[in-house]
Amino acid sequence: MKQDISSKPSFRSPIVFGPFPGLVAAESTRHGGVSVAPYHSLNLGGATKDTPENVTENNNRFFSALGIPVSSVAKSHQVHGTAILRVEHPGRFEGYDALITDRKNIQLAVTIADCTPVLIYDPVRKAMAAIHAGWRGTVGEIVKKTVLTMQQTYGCEPADCYAYIGTCIDACSFEVGDEVAEQFDPLHKKRNDEKGKFFVDLKAANRQQLLDTGLKEERIELSPFSTVIHNDDYFSYRHENGLTGRMLATIGLIG
Questions:
Q1: What is the pLDDT along the chain (255 residues), one digit of tens a residue?
Q2: What's this model's pTM, rounded to 2 decimal places?
Q3: Which of 44, 102, 107, 139 has the fewest CB atoms within 10 Å of its CB?
Q4: CB-CB contact of 235 with 227 (8 Å)
Q5: Angular region, 67: left φ>0, alpha ψ -120 to 50, beta rest
Q6: Domain residues for 26?
Q7: Which runs of E-coded beta strand occur in the chain?
Q8: Largest CA distance in the chain
Q9: For 53-62, b where at least 16 C-beta lie within 10 A, e where not — what string?
Q10: Structural domain tally of the chain?
Q11: What is the rounded CA–CA span in Å between residue 118 and residue 120?
Q12: Is residue 124 in some structural domain?
């Protein structure tokens, strides 16, 4: 892959959040950073063997492109669980896969490289969430639990909320064994008899959790991209055998 370390960070802004002034939401690609192979080039994840200096510079570039100071970012070391953190101040946290806040000038962020990022915004209560949903988190219904936590914590009504389900491994690429497949609803998996394996649709499974909690179908946007099929533009942990970088999905409200 051609290096692009001199270019600006590349990211995608969800259309569904377009109507809301002051809301900054984006999903990075792998382009526009300083990291070299195999983390080329906009590696935003510290849990790699990339140099800390590269990761710091990439984060500075990415958030600068969004007009966000890095000092306002809230992240957590993710553990593929279902723990949810109510964020009161920016910083680095430990052990949470979902972050929620109703504070302005806090930019929530989750790292991804095949797992499903989900961003949620309630324009009535001005509350938001950033969720990392791998297959374990999806089975554990982290998305549903996050919406319910926003409801309990901030008084959010799911019908008022908007959501973006971001770029992750696609249903044609996420091959799993029976022990994983049996934990998913039949609607969200398909068996390939030739391979003797199931293929799971993480986007559909997490979308269903949003619908089950009361979000309106027309207020949910799905990324059309795949970390595997579109690997030239996105990092894929599985496709690149673990030697790859991380993207970020982020959401925050500027005061």
A1: 334 444 789 999 999 999 999 999 999 999 999 999 999 999 999 989 999 999 999 999 999 999 999 999 999 999 999 999 999 999 999 999 999 999 999 999 999 999 999 999 999 999 999 999 999 999 999 999 999 999 999 999 999 999 999 999 999 999 999 999 999 999 999 998 888 899 999 999 999 999 999 999 999 999 999 999 999 999 999 999 999 999 999 999 998
A2: 0.96
A3: 139
A4: yes
A5: left
A6: 11-253
A7: 11-12, 23-28, 73-77, 84-86, 91-94, 98-101, 107-112, 116-122, 127-133, 162-165, 175-176, 189-192, 197-200, 220-222, 247-253
A8: 55
A9: ebbebbbebb
A10: 1
A11: 7
A12: yes
Whether 75 maps to a domain, the answer reads: yes
Residue with the two structure tokens 């925050």: 252
Q: With CA atoms as reference, report the closest residue to 249 among 166, 179, 188.
A: 166
On whether residue 3 sits in a domain, the answer given is no
Cite the DSSP H helix spans in the chain: 52-65, 135-139, 142-154, 178-181, 202-213
Q: What is the CB neighbour count within 10 angstroms for residue 178?
A: 11
Tokens matching residue 173 = 């690429």
Q: Which of 75, 66, 74, 25 is nearest to 47 (CA)?
A: 75
**What is the C-alpha separation between 15 and 252, in angstroms, rounded?**
15
Nearest to 215 by CA among 155, 139, 164: 164
What are the tokens at 232?
Answer: 């030239």
- The structure tokens listed for 226 are 């795949």
CATH code of residue 35? 3.60.140.10
Q: Is residue 127 part of a domain?
A: yes
User: What is the bridge-based pairing of β-strands 127-133 and 23-28?
Assistant: unpaired
